[in-house]
Amino acid sequence: MYLSQCRCATHPLTACVPFQPDHPRPIHLAENDASVFNRHQPRLYSAGPIVYYAASIMRIALNGWFLVHHPHTGSGQYLHALLEWLPRAAPHHDYHVVVPIDGDKPLSALEAACAGGFQLHPVRAGRSGLAKVIFEQVGFPNACRALRAQVAHVPYWAPPLRSPAPIVVTIHDLIPRLLPEYRGSAAVQLYTALVSAATAGASLVLTDSDASAHDLAKHLKVLPAKIRTVYLAAAPEYSPAGDWRVDDPIREKYGLAEGYVLYLGGFDPRKNVRGLLSAWTWAAGAIGQGYPLVIGGQLPAPGGAHYDDYPALAAEMDVADTVKFIGPVAEADKPALYRGASAFAYPSRYEGFGLPPLEAMASGVPVVTTTGGSLPEVVGSAGYLVPPDDTRTFGAALITIVVEPSVHADLRARGLAQARKFSWEKTARETAAAYAAVAG
Q1: Residue 121 β-bridge partners
Q2: Cα–Cα distance, 367 to 359 (Å, whole number)
Q3: CB-count burial class (<10 Å; 0-12, 13-18, 19+) for 86
Q4: Contact in structure between 354 and 315 (CB atoms under 8 Å)
Q5: Residue 239 vs residues 76, 177, 364: alpha-carbon distances, Å
Q6: Which CATH number do you get for residue 146?
Q7: Distance in angstroms (rounded) separating the CA atoms of residues 375 and 385
Q8: Is there a single domain that holds both residue 296 and residue 385?
Q9: Confidence band, pLDDT 50/70/90 cuts, at residue 182
Q10: Quick one: pLDDT at residue 321?
């Protein structure tokens, strides 16, 4: 028997009921019913008799590949946020996450990541690309069948061709379809063809922006009625209210004092770091000595087909003395680095959402970015939006933010207001509404 747990109010009693998806009558959650305790004690309890209609309670299964593998990527961070916020936004549902397990690894770390709101269901799967496909196409659907899930959510672009439950799939972007340099090997292209075909069978497609929704309709021929834009959000720790006793030592670890132009966001071709260095040639003479360009992240090995040797490129452009490459940045350190910046530069050519500019705005840092993809949706009128190849205007915008206090103050206020429009609670609420729509 499956049990659904209620996390509704505060009271030292538990209110849980057997899961009855087809029960036509109200389910009464009464006090002191010791016979229906779930094996997971809920953190919040019922303050008295509460009535839920069974039709409003759903058993939802999520594909948890990125909970185990590459949890710090964008897909992993998105999954972590759903695991945290879905039980808060829609606490009456019965949540399960299906995770791949290679060998006899303990589940304790994964259970901590679920924060008590989800039940874990391990499925044996290796780590290879083929093992990932088998997990997505066989292991996850089989687990959904065993769970009698009413909704199956794949929080990245990998829906199964067949599923025992309606599929909700989140497609963050169509980069492998839209950008030739990301199409990869024959095996990668075959995988892209597989998930493209499987998307046609999804009941609903969630995506991060209207720009991505347009791409889905145009390039995958997904019906607009089957697409919902559900925006992402910055984590709560990205805020202007830092503690100098914490922030200063973090910045010192990277050799930084307050006052710099910051870039965080990766080095693959669409991120346009070459364009950023080119823009810096216009700005360095005016602000570079007092406000260096700080570039964070693990530099790619030089000599690859799609990667430049960025330190060598900075030297070639004669700006190396005002550019600092600080190497990998720990996730926990990012809020302090944002708060110490005078401006945030994000020259990307294409984004399905664009989380770093939102994190910067939430931290009170003015943003200069581009018109690429979804970035105008995220930034709105709260920052400078420049065509990706207009490096002179990009550099001029950085100078203006740094040397004009009134512009800096105005964009800081606008950015904070814009960032408040996005929240993970709202993301989770709209995701739960999507589940309800496909479950009927």
Answers
A1: 98
A2: 10
A3: buried
A4: no
A5: 22, 35, 7
A6: 3.40.50.2000
A7: 8
A8: yes
A9: confident
A10: 97
pLDDT score, position 106 = 64
Q: Does residue 38 surpass a pLDDT of 50?
A: no
* 28 has a pLDDT exceeding 50: no
Per residue in 266-314, pLDDT (tens digit) is 999 999 999 999 999 999 999 999 999 999 999 988 766 678 899 999 9
Rg from Cα positions in the chain: 24
Expressed as residue numbers, the domain containing 210 is 58-232+424-439
- In whole angstroms, give the CA distance from residue 191 to residue 328: 30
Rounded Cα gap, residues 41 and 26, in angstroms: 23
Q: Is 155 in the same domain as 226?
A: yes
Instruction: Work out the angle between the directed axes of helices 273-287 and 391-403 (0-180°, nearest 10).
Output: 40
The C-alpha atoms of residue 377 and residue 433 are separated, in whole angstroms, by 22
User: How much of the chain exceeds pLDDT 70, in percent?
Assistant: 85
Q: Is residue 228 part of a domain?
A: yes
Q: Are 53 and 4 in contact (CB under 8 A)?
A: no
CA-CA distance, 65 to 143, in Å (whole number)?
A: 13
pTM assigned to the model:
0.84
Q: Check pLDDT > 70 for residue 414.
A: yes
Please write the tens of the pLDDT for every residue from 218-244: 999 999 999 999 999 999 999 999 899
Contact 388, 349 (CB under 8 A): yes
Question: Quick one: pLDDT at residue 291?
Answer: 98
Same domain? For 159 and 195 the reply is yes
Mean pLDDT of 419-434: 97
* Amino acid occupying residue 323: V
